[in-house]
Prior knowledge:
By secondary structure, the chain is mostly helical. The chain has helices at residues 3-7, 18-21, 28-38, 48-78, 83-131, 141-153, 164-252, 259-346, 352-363. Helices cover 81% and strands 0% of the residues.
Amino acid sequence: MSAEQKLIAIEEISEDNAPAIYVAGGLQQFIDLVKGEVLGEIPDLKTRKGRERIASLAAKVSKSKTAVEKPGRDYLRRLKEMPKVVEAELREFVTKMDALRDETRRPLTEWEAAEDARIDRHNDRLNWLKTLADDLGDQTSLHIKGLIAEAEGMQLGAHWEEFEAEAGVAKDKVLTALRAALTKREAFEAEQAELAQLRAQAEAREKADREAAIAREAAEKAQREADERAANERAAAARREQELIDQAAAQEREAENQRLQLKLQAEQAERAAAQAEADRQAALRQAEAERQAAARRAEEAAEQARQDERRRADAAAAEIVRQQQARERDQAHKIKIMGEAKEALMSMNITEELAKAIVLKIARREVPNITINF
Length: 374
């Protein structure tokens, strides 16, 4: 290559010197020139100024390419007799300049790709965190406590880089929503348990009242029957006593010659009256004993009803505890199954956060045609 060609700058290309430039190998000087300018620097990718400098150098390559290509295209149109030579040279030049541009920009392109991937990873973790408070609907308090534990277990720190502040805000917001939902759900569950207990107590009281009423009626009936028997016995004794008195009075009107017999009959009547009184007293004592027995039976029935009520209340409370324990065992089982599914996914080189997000989506039936068997 002559000294004249080496002295020509890109901006000095003209129609006059085009024949000396657009020849085989004639454009290599400009490739070397631009390459020396752009590859002579090693900008710092860690600074914004350095990244902007790389983009500027790549743009300079494109600008230099255009500055050489345009006059060459003009010269080619004038030189109809040399189209193949010039076109081949230009194609090679454009290819090399494009390659040089791409090579010049490659560190920035790679940095941008890595930066996008890094930001996507942070955004994925943020999205997972934010979805913990979604669709709480009919979730149990135990399930919500599990979500709170997951959110609380997410550590903040330098690994979040510039997303740490946003992650902290999102974590606080999610925990606030989850704790509010937990308070509301616990209040609802407590209210339902209390309502169930109150219903059981009301039913037990109604039954106890019915049984106590039956016992009272039985006691009252027994008392009435005892009183009636005693009254009948007293009436019978009075009638017998009256009959004896009437008989004694009739005998007194008998003749004197019958006095001894009347006296004997009077003594007999007196003995009979004493026996009647004894019978009357015995009947009264029997009636009182039957009344007391009826009262005891009524008291025993009432005590039995109270014991039955206590047993029913204890059984209802035990059933509530059993159901709560069953729900807790079921929730623990589900957490275990989901944990095993997550570990299986992580064994395929999937991150824990992504594995957890996949398992949660499947468990919520957000992935068609895939379920988790609990």
